[in-house]
Amino acid sequence: MTGGAAHDGPTGTGGAAHDGPAGTGRVARDAAAERAGAKPARTGRGGLQVVWIGLVLVALLAAFSVLAPRAFPTSFNLLNLVSDAAILLLLATGMTFVIITAGIDLSVGGVLVFSAVVAAKVTEATGSAALGAAGALVTGLAWGGLNGVLVALGRIPALIVTLGTLGMSLGGALLLTGGVDLRAPADLNLGLGLARWLGVPLIVWICAAITAALALALAFTRFGRHTYAIGSNAEAARRAGVAVRGHLIKVYGLAGLLAGLAGHLSLAKYGITGVSAHSTDNLQAIAAVVIGGTSLFGGVGTVAGTVIGVFIPVVLQNGFQILGVRPFWQQVVVGAVLVAAVYLDQWRRRARDQ
Fold first, then answer.
1. Domain 5-35+49-353 has what CATH class?
2. Which of 1, 32, 78, 181 is close enough to 244 for a disulfide, judged by CB 3.0 to 4.6 Å?
3. 246-251: which pairs have CB atoms within 8 A and are 24 or more residues apart?
4. Domains of the chain, residue spans
5. Single GO cellular component annotation (predicted)?
């Protein structure tokens, strides 16, 4: 791919081949190693940041446990933490793949809502929760595929494409519902929504299993290697034999699919479509990915780091509520951590290029 906006910097606006000749050589070596059946000798440059941000999470957990020993470190509260983070984790995992390719997806919150509306309507019309789930997944995949086609083939900047589909999906959801939240069928809300296994909500297990599978796929499969290669240097990846346009469509499709699943699980958990409740989900997902060490410039990141990035705001919000701190401080702290994470990424890039 020689000039597409699909991979031009963090928002598809410039600087696709930001690794220069070094990136070209690395991708070529990885491709040669892959053809020979060996694992590419590529290491995650964001690994150190993941360690540090992991230590930050541990410090937060320890601090709140000391400050509120009778309320915070209880099994009930910790279960609430993982339950609150589960659905956002799906969105952030899909976002991780997108941002590693040096793209962005602002539409995930709107796709979640639209998919939840489709799931509610299909379930109501057919009486089948399985068909409702299928409808949500197909809907999410369709929106994601549309994003991918417009970015990869239309060569429209990802920021513009996904901002447009955010408005389209939210507007479509409002048209389908008349601006009124739809209620989940009782079987779905009282079934999947309340189901538990080993004392943990089934929704948490589903999100954890999918996240773990995608973490392994990103780290150890050809799909993951191609994702890193495109984010590192899209032109070098193309010359090394990677189908850049096709892969980008798959990555955006994956993000949409996960948003569709998140919509169905959100409907089951909360019992309503939440048309107006997910307006900041895209920003929360992006913040979690960046805080977790994924570079907005592409080529660097891990799902493990994203998991940590998801839990930091959740722990802050939960701890502040228990301590009686005004919840607005959570936004201030998360914003500061986000700026610090981006600054660290910029500093690391400058140090590498010198």
1. mainly alpha
2. 1
3. 246/152, 247/101, 247/223, 248/6, 248/7, 248/101, 248/103, 248/148, 248/151, 248/152, 249/145, 249/148, 249/149, 249/152, 249/153, 250/148, 250/223, 251/97, 251/98, 251/101, 251/103, 251/148, 251/227
4. 5-35+49-353
5. plasma membrane
